[in-house]
Amino acid sequence: MDNRDDRDDRDNKETAVTIRLAQQPEADELLGRSPLAALVGMLLDQQVPMEWAFSGPYTIARRLGSDDLDAHAIAAYDPEAFAALLSEKPAVHRYPGSMAKRVQQLCAYLVEHYEGDAAAVWADAATGTELLARLRALPGFGEQKAQIFLALLGKRFGVRPRGWREAAGGYGPANVYRSAADITGPESLARVRAHKQEAKAAAKAGQGAEAGKPGKPGKPGKA
């Protein structure tokens, strides 16, 4: 069903994109105008603070002597040299070597399947389900990362195929603070960070409760 939310979303495509994920003007400006930078930032967003991850594309571009990222150039870059580039201080990521490999794998995939055009991943997706499947196929993008990026595209970049909110799962609803898709400034960043901390604490508490359950007859419970 084509609900009103979807119709309104499609009728109000954003013409100017303002991103506040890196919390640095130059880095956020690149994220707002470069589809590849946004994808790479999302890829880097694991095991490091969100601002660090989304500043990565700008740092990489600057070290490559460019004002943008190029999938063809990155895919063809010498792997050892690219890893060294990401490892320069300050490092692009806590694990620059492994993330350099993932960034190159992502760019190689884009070159092979989309002629190096990151925006082509979502440009003609007719439904949220189709777009989610395309995002999940990207190297380094699992279900959760794909759903978060789908929500980011819908909420911040105006990419809103039919059913995008539903396909984004818990990250799709409006007026929530659960992921990068919901960040518009320092205040919302703090609220998203608090949500993540609460979720981690709840998960840890759940694991503790599970470990404390008695085992089956004849078997000891988990320590």
What does this protein structure show overall?
This protein is mostly helical and 223 residues long. Helices cover 59% and strands 0% of the residues. The chain is built from twelve helices and no strands. It has helices at residues 4-11, 25-33, 35-44, 50-63, 71-76, 79-87, 96-114, 120-123, 128-136, 143-156, 164-167, 186-211. Helix 2 (25-33) crosses helix 3 (35-44).
Fill in the keyword field for this structure.
223 residues, mainly alpha, 12 helices, 59% helix, 0% strand, globular, disordered N terminus
Q: Brief description of this entry?
A:
Helices cover 59% and strands 0% of the residues.
Task: Determine the structural class based on helices, strands and strand pairing.
Answer: mainly alpha
Task: Determine the number of helices (DSSP H or I, runs of at least 4 residues).
Answer: 12
- Helix share of residues? 55-70%
Largest sheet report: none
- β-strand percent reads under 5%
Low-pLDDT segments, ≥5 res? 1-15, 216-223
Helix-strand sequence: HHHHHHHHHHHH
Distance between the termini: 50 Å
What would the average pLDDT be, to the nearest integer? 89
Rg from Cα: 19 Å
Choose one word for the global shape. Answer: globular
Q: How many DSSP-defined strands?
A: 0
Note the topology:
Layout: H1 4-11, H2 25-33, H3 35-44, H4 50-63, H5 71-76, H6 79-87, H7 96-114, H8 120-123, H9 128-136, H10 143-156, H11 164-167, H12 186-211
Helix pairs in contact: 2-3, 2-4, 3-4, 6-7, 9-10
